[in-house]
Amino acid sequence: MTKSIMSLSTAMTPAPLRPHYWGQALGTLCGRLHADTFGGSTIDGHIDYATIWQLRLCQIEVSRHRIAHRATPGEPCGQAIIKVLFQTCGTSLFEQDGRRLVIAPGDCLAYDVSRAHVISSSALTKHDVVIIPKHLLEQRGLSVERFRAQQVSARDGAGRLAHEVFISVFNQAPALAPSCEMQVAEALLDLVLLPFLSPFDLQRSPRAALAGRIKSYIAEHLNEPELSVEQLAVALDRTKRYLHMAFAEEGTTISGYIWQKRLEKCLHELEARPRSGRTLTDIAFFWGFSSSSHFTHLFKKRYGMPPSAIPRPGDLANARLGLAPLLDEGGATTTPTADGEDSAVPPISPQRSPGS
Fold first, then answer.
1. What is the rounded CA–CA span in Å between residue 45 and residue 124?
2. Is the CB of residue 107 less than 8 Å from the CB of residue 156?
């Protein structure tokens, strides 16, 4: 199934009703708006749009007009979205929060749709628009305030590249496979936001912020056996590829980080457990391990000894002499041999026992 390009047009609407229709047409894309002719006789407008993952891409052509969103006490605000607009024909005057910006062909404008604003155009205008849910900015660690009434050039550099990629993605939307839709949207979003980022934003990259969110999610769900990159991708609404890229500077993979944190939790609990505490099996299963061989292999690789060789607090003095009685997987005691291995340690069952 491919993405369809949808259309909205005033062509079939009687001239006196077109301003109302145009306001409603724009409202289906970005929230409540009022439209008027701005001194003209009527409004002739056409919108083509496609939805790519969570982004909405639009190409808009409209005659002389004015649109406005006016904040009214007691009424709901506009949608929680940011619009990035590439002007391609005509000139518009944008007003928001006391700012007045003249938007000409080659200019790019970003603004918060939920805040009161007015856009006036005295002649035909054309523009390409990316409609972005605010939460996608927040997920990248970016402040929405940075995208309030901001104007940059799209005549060259990053702005022009972003616009050219927009055009390519929009034109190829009907042929875009669902399996790559999210990846394409992520790449486009990164480019569209790039011209508005400060050196500080670039230094503290959105991916660094995402890496922090990955770590927080892992900490909250560490003892869940099903915790995986796939689960993270769903929970954080990101592609697995984007998550791996965001984590690239951490010195390990996401899966490696999960096992590292699980081992740290196991070590802490093994060191702190009382004599009547949980067995090695209980501890391993609680922190997401389901295979005895996997747990023992990773633990020994990281700490240089099997988990059964970790002494309890009360055994530390004797452990220095190699005489500490250690609780094995079944609750019995063992004595470490000279090479650090247990003389007789029954294997941990690879399956979780009922009720454990």
1. 9
2. no
Strands 55-62 and 125-133: antiparallel
Q: Return the C-alpha torsion angle 57, 61, 172, 112, nearest 10.
A: -10
Smallest Cα–Cα separation from 131: which of 183, 76, 189, 205? Answer: 189
- The SS3 assignment for 345 reads coil
* DSSP states of 259-309: HHHHHHHHHHHHHH--TTS--HHHHHHHTT---HHHHHHHHHHHHSS-GGG
Residue 274 has pLDDT above 80, yes or no: no
- Residue 317: CB atoms within 10 A of its CB come to 10
Coil vs helix vs strand at 131: strand
- Residue partners of 42: CB distance under 8 A and separation at least 6: 10, 15, 16, 18, 19, 63
Q: What is the pLDDT of residues 255-268, one digit of tens each?
A: 999 999 999 888 88
Contact 90, 105 (CB under 8 A): yes
What is the number of other CB atoms lying within 10 angstroms of the CB of residue 175? 8
pLDDT band at 202 (very low <50, low <70, confident <90, very high): low
Amino acid 288 reads G
The answer for residues whose C-beta is within 8 angstroms of residue 140's C-beta and 6 or more apart is 193, 206, 209, 210
Alpha-carbon gap, residue 107 to 124, rounded angstroms: 16
